[in-house]
Amino acid sequence: MGVSVTTSEQGPVPVVHVQGDVDVTSAPSMREAIDALILAGHRRMVLDLTDVSFIDSTGLGVVVGRLKGLRRSAGVLTVAASHERVLRVLGITGLDTVLDVAPDVDAAIAAAAQTAQ
């Protein structure tokens, strides 16, 4: 399955929406979308993975790399994820303790906005 990556403004922070499987071939699209927001000056954003049912180590590497970059500039990356397989991968890797993970986009936006203050 391919991946679709779009961005939107939903409230106080931009959202990167990802649909499909995030793997070695599709992870660069996600990275490019996040990087474009960072280059545009955004330091707080939401990564919407609610329509992702699979993410491999390459996709996780993109998330971790962008999180580190944002944190260096006092930024925030909040992840919205609800699929059991994605949540399980985040838990097994321990990323659920490093990332702010919310069950849906609205909760992720609220968390990112609150963290921003």
UniProtKB/TrEMBL annotation:
Pfam families: STAS (PF01740)
Superkingdom field: Bacteria
Gene3D superfamilies: STAS domain (3.30.750.24)
GO molecular function, one term: anti-sigma factor antagonist activity
Domain called STAS: residue spans: 3-112
Family that this chain belongs to: Belongs to the anti-sigma-factor antagonist family.
Protein name: Anti-sigma factor antagonist
Organism: Janibacter alkaliphilus
Lineage of source species: Bacteria, Bacillati, Actinomycetota, Actinomycetes, Micrococcales
